[in-house]
Design a protein that fits this description.
The protein is mostly helical. It has 8 helices and no strands. Helix 1 crosses helix 4, helix 6 runs antiparallel to helix 7 and helix 7 crosses helix 8. The longest helix is centred in the last third of the chain and has 27 residues. The C terminus is likely disordered.
Length: 189
Amino acid sequence: MSERVPTSPDEARSLARVFREEGAFVLRTIRRLGATPADAEDLTQQVFVVLHRRPELLESIARGPATRAVLFGILRRVLADHRKAQRRARRSDEVEVDAHVAVPPAQERSVRQSEARRQLDAALARLDDDKREVLVLYELEELSMPEVARVLGVPVQTAYTRLHAAREIMRKALSRQQLAVGAPSRGTP
């Protein structure tokens, strides 16, 4: 895609307004759809670069109330491209942490919160993109189901079906993780 440098003052103001009003939504949604915190800011910037390069999208936002629908469509594509690039360049950069490291009591709550977030991310990762998108938009972004359906371009009943399936998968994944975390070791009575 070629860069589109010339920007009218109106376009620049419009882009700045959209970023100011919806930047947090884009960042939060990208993060909730599975991007790492390290990648989420870069991906958010990419969404607004696409918006800058495609003035017809910026104009469609200015003409109607579909700002989040347009942004979601862009971020969905940016995230899909990012995932494809990650799969091609798969590398393991996880660092194993010694389970026996003493954690000061003041940090214990932070460790528990981090673990809960990790478990939630792992459960979300079990969902295919269609189900994850519905769950994030409905449960976390609090869009109505008709809005979710419109953003995703599917019938309302399809969105409800995906939400039901996503909730069931999440329930099972989180209950399995809870059992694994809370289960006694084999040698424990």
